[in-house]
Amino acid sequence: DEECVDKAKKALENSWQVLNSGDWKLEKQTPEGDTVHSRVLPNIGKIFKLAMLDDYTDITYQVTREVAGGFISSRDFINLRHYAVKDGQHIAAGTGMEHPDFPANIKYIRGENGPNCWVMSPIPKDDKQCTFQWLLNTNLHGWLPQYAVDSALITALTDYIGYIRAYASKLRQEGEL
C-alpha cells in the first residue's frame, strides 16, 4: 500500500511539473473555447492536455468502474465544473453537458449529472476542521431499479467522506495540516 501511495504522489508531482512547463503545441480549439495542446516528452512520447476555460472552469470526462459485481455497469460522464470562494466557503460546482469531443461510446452507458457541488466551510475559531457538504444529482440511465441506484449513491457518499476523513487524519499526522 505504501508503495502505491508513494508512486501516486510521484505521479502527481511529475504531472504537475509537466503541466506547468515546456512548450505546448495547440492541436485544436473548439467553438466553446476549449483547447487541446500536445507535447512530446523524451522516453514517454506524445502527451495531451485539455486546457480549462479559465482558471476556475473546466470540462472533464470521467468513466466509472462497474460495481455490485457488474450489476451496475460502467458509466461515462461529461461534466462542466467551476470553482469559487463564496461568503468564505470554497465551492466546486458542476453539471453534466454534451461535448463534441466526447461522443457516446458503446462500451459505456452515458450517465448525466444535474446540479452538483462540494462546499467546504470553515468552522469559526477552528482552523483544523471544516464542514463538508455534497449536493449529488446523478442519473445513471439504463435499466436499474431506483432503490438500487439510491443505495449505491448513498454508499458512495458515505464511503467518500470516510476516505476524506482518513486522508485528513493522515495529513495531520504528517504535519501537513
TrEMBL record:
Coiled coil: none annotated. Residues 1-173 form the START domain. Transmembrane segments: none annotated. PROSITE patterns: START (PS50848). InterPro entries: StAR-like, STARD3, START-like_dom_sf, START_lipid-bd_dom. This is START domain-containing protein. The lineage of its organism: Eukaryota, Metazoa, Ecdysozoa, Arthropoda, Hexapoda.
